[in-house]
From TrEMBL:
Protein name per UniProt: Pyrroline-5-carboxylate reductase
Transmembrane portions of the chain: none
GO molecular function, one term: pyrroline-5-carboxylate reductase activity
Origin superkingdom: Bacteria
Keywords: Amino-acid biosynthesis, Cytoplasm, NADP, Oxidoreductase, Proline biosynthesis
Role: Catalyzes the reduction of 1-pyrroline-5-carboxylate (PCA) to L-proline.
Lineage of the species this protein comes from: Bacteria, Pseudomonadati, Pseudomonadota, Alphaproteobacteria, Acetobacterales
EC number: 1.5.1.2
Amino acid sequence: MTAPHPASAPSSSDAPVILLAGCGRMGSALAQGWAASAHPPRLVILDHKLEKAPGNAPIYRQVKDLPADLAPALIVLAVKPAGAAELLEALRQHLGKGLTHSTLLSIMAGKSCADLARACGNPDMAVIRAIPNTPSSVNAGTTGLYAGPTVSAPMKALAHQLMSDVGAVVEVPKEEDLRAVTALSGSGPAYVFLLAELLEKSGVELGLSRETATQLARNMIYGAGKMLHDLPQSAATLRQNVTSPNGTTAAALDVLSAPDAWPRTVPQATRAAAKRAAELDD
Ligand SMILES: NC(=O)C1=CN([C@@H]2O[C@H](COP(=O)(O)OP(=O)(O)OC[C@H]3O[C@@H](n4cnc5c(N)ncnc54)[C@H](O)[C@@H]3O)[C@@H](O)[C@H]2O)C=CC1
Ligand SMILES: O=C(O)[C@@H]1CCC=N1
């Protein structure tokens, strides 16, 4: 995984142009990570309401405002799935060949490569799908990536590089695998943030100040995440190393590992997320 870069480097003028279409929560997480990366891309942003772009990329509010001769190498589609077809139609009208000659990199949890190609009016349109996550904003992202059959090797390499600049990239062999990726690493940060919220609350219930409970919960999750990332041991071994026989951790794990607790609810939650991803694909 890429280490954070303390200062943003300027993008090179011969770097390929990337159009980021949609710069909300996930789009801006990527833009922040790219601005802080070693080789910031030449980003052009399309967003209705974004005020200030990370790395000072130019922002256009509407498709009709984009330079008509814009020919981005990649168009990163970072809007909600429901708005994708309308946006692609507008881009097709406005950019013409600038759309069909570029490669789509959809980060949407939903809409298949075939659907997106159809929405571009070109069944052979090159479409890559990637599911990133918000830790990309601090260059610690996790992205699952699938390249459709008409994607050229250089464009696949460019997409891979772009996502590697903000974290780790895992390629999956089947497009449907992206539903499981979404359930694990796409939505996953929210599960960890929920755990942090609940730990903070229970720390307060145990008598700590809100500030102390928050600091303990956040730093503990950071440290456990760093061990999982940096060390070769399995998660099970790391867990066992914390758990003294008949000690405090065992008392807590008796609750969390009960058959009706996490062993049931975690798979239930990821199945629900994957099912929703499948619905958003259709
Ligand atoms: N938020 C997350 O953690 C993740 C989100 N995704 C995917 O990323 C996509 C975006 O999600 P969020 O960033 O959370 O949504 P969001 O609602 O925060 O961002 C969407 C942005 O697109 C802009 N937009 C929409 N249509 C536009 C148009 N026609 N022209 C210009 N700007 C337009 C909106 O102004 C907004 O800023 C979704 O498809 C989601 O499935 C994927 C992985 C993780
Ligand atoms: O909740 C969602 O649908 C998006 C996809 C993964 C994370 N956020």
